[in-house]
Amino acid sequence: MRKIIVVENKDYRKEKTSCDNNGINIPDYFADVSKMIKIGKEGIRKVEDYRLTRYACYLVVENGDPR
């Protein structure tokens, strides 16, 4: 079973480039998803998220800020 993690508000350009350089199909590891959230009393808004596999999470950590 493949574990999927949902992460909000990150672009993942470096990680997707690294995935592409290794010959890996990007949508298999970085899936674009969206959800509707409530704002205010009766408003709703669409929020973009990503679903990441374990390997995608590894790439995020590997390409993270070194500070």
Helix and strand arrangement:
Blueprint: E1 5-8, H1 13-21, H2 26-29, E2 30-39, E3 43-52, H3 54-62
Antiparallel strand pairs: 1-3, 2-3
What report would you give on this structure?
This protein is α+β, with helices and mostly antiparallel strands and 67 residues long. The protein has three helices and three strands, in the order E-H-H-E-E-H. Strand 2 and strand 3 (43-52) form a beta hairpin.
Key features of this structure:
36% strand, 67 residues, 33% helix, three-stranded antiparallel β-sheet, alpha+beta
Helix content class:
25-40%
Q: List the total number of helices.
A: 3
The assigned structural class equals alpha+beta
Number of strands: 3
Radius of gyration: 14 Å
- Strand adjacency order, main sheet: 1-3-2
Distance between the termini: 34 Å
Low-confidence stretches: none
What's the mean pLDDT score? 79
Oligomerization state: single chain
Order of helices and strands: EHHEEH
In short:
It contains three helices and three strands; from the N terminus they run E-H-H-E-E-H. By secondary structure, it is an alpha+beta fold. It has helices at residues 13-21, 26-29, 54-62; strands at residues 5-8, 30-39, 43-52.
